[in-house]
Amino acid sequence: MTETEVISGWIAPGARVLDLGCGDGKLLKYLWQTKQAPGYGVEIDDAHVLECLKNDVNVLQMDLEDGLAAFADQSFDRVILSETLQAIHRQEPLLQDMLRVGREAIVSFPNFGYWRARIQIALAGHMPVSKELPYQWYDTPNVHHCTLVDFEALCATLGIRIRERVVLRDGAPVTMLPNLLGSIALYRVAR
Amino acid sequence: MIVEAQKAKFTEPLRLKGGALLPEFEIAYETYGTLNAQRSNAVLVCHALNASHHVAGTYANDADNLGWWDNMVGPGKPLDTNRFFVIGSNYIGSCFGSTGPASPNPATGKPWGADFPVVTVEDWVAAQARLADFLGIERFAAVMGGSLGAMQALQWALSYPERVRHSIVIAATPRLSAQNIAFNEVARQAIMTDPDFHGGHYYEKGVVPVRGLRIARMIGHITYLSDDAMMEKFGRVLRNKSTPGFDFDVDFEIESYLRYQGDKFATYFDANTYLRITKALDYYDPAADFGGDLSTAFARAQADFLVVSFTSDWRFSSARSREIVRALLDNRRVVSYLEIDAPQGHDAFLLDDPRYHGALRAYYGNIAL
User: What's the pLDDT at A121?
Assistant: First the structure.
């Protein structure tokens, strides 16, 4: 089971989708092809924006740190933040804005509580480097890592309800000790 | 690419937005590429303030006269004329071939001069629609323009929603700001207070309000460049001297540049045209009839949109393009938006930044014919 499959499972046919930090637009293209879900991507990186255009995906070159002022209240069925949360400087206002713009939000991130990450810090004494987190500490775009426990605590603080959670490791769902054994977490959240 | 300018004459009068009736008019235009059998590959390129229908290529008898957007339009260029049939059209009121203030007034046989009516972006688009009819184009694959040309690309999608599949809107604003209008008014005052202006009837006096035109152009040029680009290009470098002259000759390179641009412009541009174009800019406001609400104004658009802005453009800033994007999103239009971090200012739309041209190439590549 891939992240894309999990996210796709949370998108109804024809749903209006906003994908924040959409990269090359492959997810949006997939959702259009499989769910006829019309979508827009938000992306800041020039190379990714060009890939989106090549993929014939609607892309809006904007900085997520500036908020989502371009989008009207409740104008999307789903607002996706896929593996981008950890690269955002101010997560609280963005999460709030996502649920202003969308009925529901989908958030995924690499779990910093994954045991391999813990071991690299605890025993080897260095910042984790892995398949999900391939960067060295000095060249990473990521600024705010979190664990499942951390994210769920933030949601509780912001009054955001968690409707569904899927935790993956190597493409398989993790149900036991997810904060320790899962490398990627996906959440479907709402107000 | 060797190209040829053509003219089409329209004898059915055109009622202008300002109320005047233009009894007849000609449009100068050029075409590049070949219209396909389905007539589905036509792209209209709209020009900005001082340009013309000569978008691309050169003339057989004037090899140095390269079209103003030749880096964008041509065989193998981002707007590829091997695939698209591209039309460059000169707006009415211009001084480059279409009917304008220097053309003869059919009522008198003398040049229109000051009597040529004030034309608007909507009027230009209405006139271009006649040209499209004449060329047998029911629906454009795209209408594209930068700056004032972008206003026409927007207006096409509003005036003739069913005739535009894609509207490509570059370095645009949905309406001028007070500051934009202020710059235009200074330019107009420069022209109208020139003793050689004669209330617009200077043709018959055999003079040209050169002083006014050159100052108008100098003002314009300041707004086309960013502060950084101007500093980068000219800095505080002195012109042909090592110390300031302590007089009022040219000291700095930037002064020399502005004087040169002003002088050049005054030799080929018409003052009455300049007045009218700046008015067309000032008046353009598609939201005006909708209580100022741009989203309501765009409700009738059917096209897909590509909107491009440049971060250093302070004449029509990225924030103004984002207003357009917001209005399109509110109407659930298909839209992509590029905010290109280019240093050159408003003029960046004429340059060939690889991100900008790459995006246009990709966008045109996905337009089905």
Answer: 84
Angle between helices B210-224 and B271-283 (to 10 degrees): 40
Please list every residue in chain A whose beta carbon sits closer than 8 Å to the beta carbon of residue B363.
53
CB atoms within 10 A of CB B299: 14
Per-residue pLDDT band for A119 (boundaries 50, 70, 90) equals: confident
Q: Which of B326, B330, B362 sits opposite A54 (nearest CB)?
A: B362
- Cβ atoms of A7 and A84 within 8 Å: the answer is no
Residue with tokens 């698209």: B84
Res. A144 pLDDT band, cuts 50 70 90: confident
Phi, psi of B308 (to 5 degrees): -130, 130
Q: Do A58 and B336 touch (CB under 8 A)?
A: yes
Question: Number of residue pairs across A and B with CB atoms under 8 Å?
Answer: 51
Tell me the per-residue pLDDT of A81-115, one tens digit each, with 9 for 90 and over. Answer: 999 988 899 999 999 999 999 999 999 999 888 88
B330 contacts in chain A (CB < 8 Å): 72, 75
Distance (Å, whole) CA A65 – CA A144: 13
Cα B314 from Cα B323, distance rounded (Å):
15
Asked whether the beta carbons of residue B362 and residue A72 sit closer than 8 angstroms, the reply is no
pTM score = 0.95
